[in-house]
Amino acid sequence: MASAYNPNASAKDFRVAIVGGGMCGLACAVGLSRFGIHADIFESAPKFDEVGAGVGLGPNALRALDGLGVLDTVLARGDDAERTLRRMVFVSGQGAHGEVYDYNDSSEFTDADTGIGIYRPAFLDALLPLLPNPNATHFNKRCTSISTSTSGAQVIHFADGTTHEADLIIGADGIKSTSRNAVAGTDEKLLQFTNTVAYRGLVPMETLRLEGVKTNLARRVYNFIGIDKHIIAFPIKSGKIVNIVAFATDNSVPVGSVEVNGPWVQPVPQQELLDRFSGWGHDVVAMLKHLKTPSKWSIHTLIPLETFVRGRIVLVGDAAHAMAPHLGAGVGQGFEDVFLLCELLGHPSTNLSNLEDVLKAYDAVRQPRANMVLKESFRAGVIYEALGKPGYGPNDMESHLAGIFEPIWRHDLDADVASTVAGLRERGSFPAVTNE
């Protein structure tokens, strides 16, 4: 799947700058380097850093990482050498946590339908050695705006008063992206609070075993569901640690009607978490009891953007399609963005003169797909937290959830590349015959 790295590849005639050095920004820089494309990374923080939490990567995300040439390194260095995440099991959050629905029951399972849970900082640690030029990374560079010079170059303006010119800017600066403003405008209403908060933390698997937790959290993703609440638990660090995310939603007000004052991520007293899930079953209480210092995340999403591209500025990851985490698909969609973008930019026919056509072709594929996943992710959260409501009894959950993961997991990324290149040829942006 991955394009072979050619150290003798001719340098492209366009300069690339990446705004944001998170998971997608680093993956993009490494992916471009495989085609001999140099990219400067501008990160607002004083160093590379990711919040200390786990993230699930589905099979589509792993295929994208494989296409970028980094999967083996991520598996080896990320302490998650085995694909341990299999399909979700839905159990009641109450009582003895009786099974409500096993996703395997409604869809044929294959080995290709496995993913991994990985510690976010471990992912960055895996990619950092793959960056071809450490001097191309610039810290303490907070992008405030992007403009176009009289020569047509894109100009990044930073909070420290400096600027940087490039021919192509890749906005990978997350949900609070400033590069997004150059594509979609400055309307803050593009971001909306979902009325859901998530309490996150990590607990050693052995601690839960000693606590008498009977739910087998070693190889499956478990979803403890109930009215207006649910808890996702899955293994990371080769099954040594359980990543726990406890969601609670206020459905008394419309989505988007409440603004969150203060940080979107903040530490909270453990008692707040325990009070939220008071009366839930033994295994849930045991897990939450060992989240000594939980962090509370106010879950925001983007209203679907009409485009991820303007001129020679392109958005990837949360900058383009920040979504609720209920399908574990947000980071994976970012990696799909990066894979397709790198393949198109690295194509022998791509150059400065047709760069905007190439970005439009990227947008035609990624915008509808990522926005579909964004909408489905929100819908999944509504279903998870409906158990016990009319029409959402244990026997109804399969009808609401069956088939929700397949369009995400089984998407053909190579076909995206092939069809996009074919379209560029048909429109004359690429020559009909190339020396590929």
Automatic annotation (TrEMBL):
Keywords: FAD, Flavoprotein, Oxidoreductase. One of its GO terms (molecular function) is oxidoreductase activity. The keyword Hydrolase does not apply. InterPro entries: FAD-bd, FAD/NAD-bd_sf, FAD_monoxygenase. Residues 14-376 form the FAD-binding domain. One of its GO terms (biological process) is secondary metabolite biosynthetic process. The keyword Oxidoreductase applies. Gene3D superfamilies: FAD/NAD(P)-binding domain. This is FAD/NAD-P-binding domain-containing protein. It comes from Mycena metata.
